[in-house]
Q: What sequence folds into this?
């Protein structure tokens, strides 16, 4: 990125690393748990401000055999939900041997569940636990922004016969997500080159890009924005708050996520999501729709 | 510190019959406790403090202390005119009456604070019939900041509509805007009354982004609440987190390593830089000057990615911590180089941008005399920070209440007199210049390696202010701990809560197409205001 410190008058666009995921040393990206090393204590879960990491006793519900019959429980489940993660690094600080923050971004997904990685542990007696298996693994994806952009453009033409128009709706965010969404329009990211335009009204939009936990005071406005958006339309929830309430959770003032109010097609993790993650999420949403032709 | 007048004696002599004086947990806090029988003289005392003494109102904190001592207390916080001191007027509220005399008639700056008091606590001070901090569909008798209200309560919606000030007459019409705006910005509703192009009146309805932050923090471990503080207002993530950390440090009497203070100052200035530069771009965009805007946004992006390089987070999150900082932006050679290079190239970029603006008459024509806020109005409404300095008010917490490493660097407090959009832009430019100079000075300072004080338990039952001059203005927090060292009460005051009141005054008699640029020239936080 530092190579972008260029002189005035030069082209600044498109100077992204050709290879994706080249974030600087010390970047607060996706935390990864070394499950075989993990002892299923709950220091990381204790440290996590948004309960993205949980260590729970295995219940009959999450332990079923192939026929769906509940099995004998007694194990432990360690689970990390990248949808709730705010990438603060408290887990790494609590357990530096087993958890480290990578320089990778967690990609967006259309299935909320595929933001969760879970592993199962069995008792070795005397309160210690042994790794058994990874039950579910969160999606991962590595593409360059140019690659994603080109696919967005092709997909938009295929779907709509024209470019993609997005209406951004802030449903009570802290403004962090807006800073990154605005950055998509700057000359460095310049997403208009991929045929993506931010429009002033939901009536002109193909997609609602929603941020914030959906506050009580924005709930009605969000529903009305969706009603005003012509079909076919997509809803993208950007940021930990929009995915599941984030650090604000569900309360008298917060609905606890966009999908509690309107249906969501794609979830983009991050607090806030990196501009590259936003673009990748927009593409994921477009892939969800059947072609016109 | 030595030039500070002896307020203890001064106030004690004048008001000793009505007030009890005591020192706060932090050395620069003086608590003035109003005796219950003297409640009716509250406005007189506030008038004396602000008018005769020249103290400046910064925030009003209400606290439900019924479980501790059977009543409510209000804390009116003033910044003393000379010397680094805060005067905190503590006023008891009888829970059977839930009423205090209003200070708004003598102190207009307290208006919104008193209205929030009514909406959130049910304590009546200023008898304004309009709601401020709750929407019309919120039940009249529910006050979420009372301790017996649980944050996970389901509150039913009741019928109700917004009451906007109506302007009537031939040719007068209303333009409703929001809460979902045309740009990528936060939600709020604006109701313009116009006749032709000029704006006669603007009413603003906020609190769309109210997330119950202060309520959620009740009972929380202060170290965890830092992450909540980072999400009060995204563009001031670090400043808010720092203000909160300082509350906890000040009430604990925690000493901060010198290196941590330097890092905090560096990061605060980095936050100021990316915001000031970004705002320059936004102002240019709103007057249709795309070339200038693109240049500014490119410059802003450089600083966002510099933030990422130095701290791992583009918005400087997860840097602040109680007792110090979690990251040192200079702990590796490439980082040190990046920061030094950014000071040089950033400064060049800023000057080029400024020259571009000042040599483009079509831009200047749109900015000059637009959205003027007079010094009188700014003073009356208690406007703070960058907006106040653009209207000729000479105030800056970095100088007046030195925090972090600001006492160890030299800098000028930016000043403009005109109070128009151009003045606010010039203040930003001057402050960005000073930021570069502050960074340069701090790069010379190597003061040990420790980044954070050793973890110690947070003491129970203490309270203190935490304050920071953020890029927008004074961020003032007040926190009190409960019996186990957990948060009992946390009051957040973003400068926007003062400065939103400037907008309707500044837009009056301007044309509707100039509204976006006037709004942007203040760039107020919705989320910081609504919390």
A:
């Amino acid at each position: 990125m530092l190579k972008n410190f260029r002189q005035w008058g030069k082209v600044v666009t498109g100077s992204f690393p050709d290879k994706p995921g080249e974030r600087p040393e010390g970047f607060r990206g996706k935390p990864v748990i070394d499950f075989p090393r993990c002892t299923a204590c709950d220091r990381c879960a204790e440290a996590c401000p948004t309960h993205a990491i949980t260590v729970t006793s295995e219940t009959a519900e999450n332990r079923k055999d192939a026929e769906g019959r509940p099995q004998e429980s007694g194990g432990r489940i360690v689970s990390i939900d990248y949808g709730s993660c705010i990438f603060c690094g408290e887990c790494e600080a609590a357990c530096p041997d087993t958890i480290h923050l990578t320089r990778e971004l967690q990609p967006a997904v259309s299935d909320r569940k595929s933001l969760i990685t879970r592993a199962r542990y069995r008792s070795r007696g005397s309160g210690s636990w042994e790794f058994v298996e990874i039950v579910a693994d969160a999606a991962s994806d590595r593409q360059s922004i140019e690659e994603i952009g080109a696919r967005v453009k092709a997909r938009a033409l295929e779907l709509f016969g024209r470019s993609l128009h997005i209406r951004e709706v802030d449903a009570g965010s802290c403004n962090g997500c807006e800073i990154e969404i605005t950055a998509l329009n700057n000359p460095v990211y310049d997403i208009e080159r991929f045929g993506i335009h931010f429009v002033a009204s939901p009536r002109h939009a193909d997609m609602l890009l929603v941020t914030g936990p959906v506050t009580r005071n924005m709930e009605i406005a969000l529903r009305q924005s969706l009603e005003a958006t012509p079909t076919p339309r997509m809803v993208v929830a950007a940021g930990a708050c929009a995915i599941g309430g984030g650090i604000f959770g569900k309360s008298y003032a917060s609905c606890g996520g966009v999908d509690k109010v309107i249906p969501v097609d794609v979830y983009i993790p991050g607090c806030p999501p990196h501009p590259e993650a936003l673009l990748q999420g927009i593409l994921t949403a477009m892939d969800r729709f059947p072609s016109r032709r | 510190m030595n030039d500070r007048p002896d307020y203890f004696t001064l106030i004690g002599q004048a008001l000793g019959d009505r007030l009890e004086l005591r020192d706060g947990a932090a050395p620069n806090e003086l608590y003035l406790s109003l005796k219950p029988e003297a409640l009716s003289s509250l406005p007189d005392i506030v008038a004396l403090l602000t008018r005769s003494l020249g103290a400046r109102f910064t925030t009003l904190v209400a606290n439900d202390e019924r479980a501790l001592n059977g009543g409510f207390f209000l804390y009116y916080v003033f910044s003393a005119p000379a010397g680094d001191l805060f005067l905190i007027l503590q006023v008891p509220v009888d829970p059977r009456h839930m009423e205090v005399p209003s200070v708004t008639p003598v102190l207009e700056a307290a208006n919104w604070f008193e209205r929030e008091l009514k909406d959130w606590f049910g304590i009546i001070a200023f008898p304004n019939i309009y709601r401020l901090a709750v929407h019309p569909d919120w039940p009249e008798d529910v006050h979420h900041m009372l301790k017996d209200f649980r944050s996970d309560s389901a509150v039913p919606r009741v019928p109700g509509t917004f009451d906007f000030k109506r302007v009537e007459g031939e040719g007068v019409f209303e333009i409703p805007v929001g809460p979902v705006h045309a740009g990528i910005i936060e939600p709020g509703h604006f109701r313009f009354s116009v006749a032709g192009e000029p704006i006669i009146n603007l009413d603003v309805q906020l609190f769309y982004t109210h997330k119950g932050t202060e309520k959620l923090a009740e009972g929380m471990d202060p170290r965890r609440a830092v992450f909540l503080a980072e999400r009060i207002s995204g563009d001031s993530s670090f400043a808010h987190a720092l203000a909160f950390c300082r509350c906890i440090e000040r009430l604990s009497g925690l000493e901060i390593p010198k290196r941590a203070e330097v890092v905090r100052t560096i990061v605060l200035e980095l936050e100021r830089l990316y915001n000031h530069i970004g705002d320059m771009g936004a102002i240019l965009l709103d007057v249709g000057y795309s070339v200038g805007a693109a240049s500014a946004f490119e410059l802003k992006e450089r600083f966002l990615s510099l933030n990422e390089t130095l701290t791992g987070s583009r918005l400087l999150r997860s840097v602040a911590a109680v007792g110090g900082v979690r990251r040192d932006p200079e702990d590796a050679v490439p980082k040190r180089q990046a920061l030094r290079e950014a000071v040089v190239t950033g400064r060049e970029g800023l000057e080029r941008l400024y020259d571009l603006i000042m040599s483009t008459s079509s831009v200047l024509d749109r900015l000059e005399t637009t959205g003027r806020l007079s010094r009188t109005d700014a003073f009356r409404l208690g406007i703070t920070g960058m907006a106040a300095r653009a209207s000729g008010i000479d105030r800056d917490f970095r100088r007046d209440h030195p925090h972090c490493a600001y006492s160890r660097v030299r800098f000028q407090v930016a000043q403009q007199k005109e109070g128009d959009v151009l003045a606010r832009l010039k203040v930003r430019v001057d402050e960005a210049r000073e930021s570069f100079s502050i960074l340069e000075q701090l790069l010379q300072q190597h003061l040990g390696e420790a980044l954070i004080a050793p973890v110690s338990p947070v003491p129970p039952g203490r309270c203190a202010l935490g304050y920071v001059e953020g890029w927008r203005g004074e961020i003032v927090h007040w926190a009190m701990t409960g019996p186990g060292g957990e948060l009992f009460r946390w009051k957040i005051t973003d400068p926007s809560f003062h400065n939103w009141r400037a907008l309707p005054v500044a837009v009056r008699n301007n044309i509707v197409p100039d509204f976006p640029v006037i709004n942007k020239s203040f760039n107020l936080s919705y989320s910081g205001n609504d919390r």
Notes: The longest strand of chain B covers residues 56-65. Residues 213-319+332-530 of chain B form a domain with the Cytochrome-c3 Hydrogenase; chain B fold (CATH 1.10.645.10). Chain B has three domains: 7-121, 172-205, 213-319+332-530. DSSP finds 19 helices and 13 strands in chain B.
